[in-house]
Amino acid sequence: MSLFRKKQQKQLQSFEQLNGETVAEDFSVHEKKTCTDPYLQHAWVSVCIDILTRNVARAEYEVRKNGTVERETPLANLFRFPNKNLSRFDLWKQTCAWWSLDGEAFWWFGENYVCGIPTEIFILNPRYMQHVVNEGKITKWVYTEEGSGRPLIILPDEVIHFKDWNPWNVYRGVSPLVSLGLEVEQDLLAAKQNTGLLKEGGVPKGLLKTDQVLTEAEAELLARTWDKKYGRGMKNRVAVLGKGTEYQPLTFSPDVLKLYDMKKWNLYTLLAKYGIPPRVANIQDSKSSLSGTDTDSQHRAFWNYTLIPLLKNFEEVLEVQLFRRFNLPETGVFNLDSIPELQESEDAQSNRDIAEINAGLKTINDVLRKRGEDVKPWGDTWFRASSLIPVE
Q1: Per-residue DSSP letters for 158-187?
Q2: What is the pTM (predicted TM-score) of this model?
Q3: Which of 102, 215, 310, 380 gets the most CB atoms within 10 Å of its CB?
């Protein structure tokens, strides 16, 4: 039986009869679009979202109480095992994917939820969610499962709604691609045109020119003979042209060559929108450095300026819509201690420790304790450099 089968106690009224309440529409552009599904049709949209989702899921979400991490409590297990078909990794991966594609994500507590702390979490498709507004507040959500045609009524207390700011609709999120519609459309049209060029699209690679008057049959015979001897698959053959005949190769027009520059510009615009440095996406600009330091700095920047703010956003949404809603003493945070990109290298840490010891900010034993090593009997004494002279 379908997960989204109807709940009799909540579907006493049909979607068409909602007691005068208004089903609000999402922000949408009704213009006919060439690209209707960017994740399916645009390669770099798919790449960007995949980069975000697989990295977000690397961060461990922990439930803490009074600073102590909880392991086997019902709330901790809820995030470790959201439901029997969903893993912790998939929970955050799918949440980030919907957020990055549609600007919002929905967690539903399931059809068996009645009240209190939920025991299950399901990810809903935002595209099938419609909100019902009464007196400026959402009174219910209407979820229509694809192919069923029968709406499922979900109360606001049964969902957690992650949404990005939307200037056109305060109740819903908005896709980050909404401002990149032209760029995505251009890339798709350029890709189609390039595909046509690769298939030759009816445009010849060259012309056979002659000063002789040819009948239609002679022209057809000349074309077949040329293609048979020097056509596709025939390389390094010597062409012998008849009297008064010359070969003129055709090249791409400047307008066609500009497509590649346009696609490159659109690519960097897309990466900037999603906050993904080029090296994180395995893109190497010929003008940029090839050093490992440059690559490491871009991966670190990706976490500091893109992923960490996104994770903090998720934390705050759950703080308001879960922990505070149910007046829970716990809180939830992402533990980033195991993320290599955020860890300082051993050499850099050692240089920092030496500099702080020399400046008197730490003692040798302070450093050893932090590293978990045995302290020295003399390590709590700071030795000032003899070259230092006090200034009065």
Answers
A1: GEEEEE---SS-TTS---GGGGGHHHHHHH
A2: 0.71
A3: 102
